Amino acid sequence: MADSKYQQVSELVDKARHGNRNSTDQLVMLFHEDIFRMVYYRTRSRMDAEDLTQEIFMQMIKSLPGLKKTSRFKSWLFRIALNRIKDFYRKKSILNFFGTSTEVDESYQEISQNDDDPIDKLMRKEFWEQFRQFTEGLPRWEREVFILRFADHLGIREIAETLKKNESTVKTHLYRALKKFRQTPGLHDLLKGGVP
Questions:
Q1: Range of 37's domain?
Q2: Is residue 110 part of a domain?
Q3: Which end of the chain is more exposed for a tag (fewer CB within 10 A), N or C?
Q4: CA atoms within 13 Å, Cβ hemisphere of 49
Q5: CATH of residue 68
Q6: What pLDDT score was predicted for residue 113?
Q7: Residues 6 or more apart in contact with residue 140 via CB below 8 angstroms
Q8: How far apart are CA 77 and CA 70, in angstroms?
Q9: For residue 20, how far is the Cα from the chain centroid?
């Protein structure tokens, strides 16, 4: 985020913390797409992503008065989202264990609204499927850092704040993941071709 956007967000957060409804609504609008994309990538279900995104913003509104540093709002919000996703999977695994899950198996779909070109859509779908397979093969922290950096577009400092790790640890995990990424020819070739 540029400095002016950081300043704008900081001011909105400060007003929202003191009960300004308009500022709260603006924060939701500013970050809704980012949070939805983040959740959707991790759940691969539009319905679950919509529900979780709503829960994340409800948690944000409830917890906002306790946020001490307004400059860390984005990483704080992403941490709320990661925790909600973990809770979602914990609950899901319990339901699956007891055989009470009503889960519908949905195939992963690209979020993009541009469905004009079927070849383009197919290539995007192929890229995201390979991206998912690649990240699932990474150790936990390499996977989290890589996804936060390249799917969620967070900077190193924001990732460190989100994961509560120091920046040098984040850089090490990112370096290791990137090294593995460069050794994965399918993904690398798709990227060279400009997908997505």
A1: 3-97
A2: no
A3: N
A4: 19
A5: 1.10.1740.10
A6: 44
A7: none
A8: 11
A9: 26
